[in-house]
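Supplementary Methods, section 5.1.

A reviewer requested that the exact input to the structure prediction be made available. We therefore reproduce it here, unchanged from the version used in the analyses.
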Amino acid sequence: MSEQITLVDDAQKAADRISHANTAVRNAAENVGSAVRDTLETVGNSATSIRATLDKNQTIAEWVQTLDASMTAITRTLAEMSNRANAIKDIAQQVNMLSINARIEAARSGDAGRGFAVVAQEIDRLSHQTAETTAGITLSIEDLTGSISALQKDSGVNRSGFVGDL
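The structure derived from this sequence is encoded token-by-token as follows.
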């Protein structure tokens, strides 16, 4: 009987140890479960954040493409303006030549050509003003073209970061 009591005591102690071990396993499992839930929530939040960032990147990439197309159109318009400014410059040079010829003819005409000489001189002055104004327009067009080219280059660099997202 003493042996049986010892065996029962040993069995009781073993049962207690198993019970404590089961409690420890249950607590550990609850902690793991809680950590898994927290991790899943964090991953879900991260995925939502990544989706939002990708959406914003997509929007920015589309805006950059639209901006690039607009800048290309502006560059074409500036090129057309430059061509027209050059045409005006050519016309001003032709008018200047005509005014020189008119002054020469007015001088040959003597007193009868004085009024014509005044008109020729005024035409010459206007042709010089036109040439100066055209030169200013040409410089402004060149400045704008340079600025647009720099913007296109910058937007191309920025857009390359989004190309994979499109």
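Residues 97 and 124 are 8 Å apart (CA to CA). These observations are discussed further in the main text.
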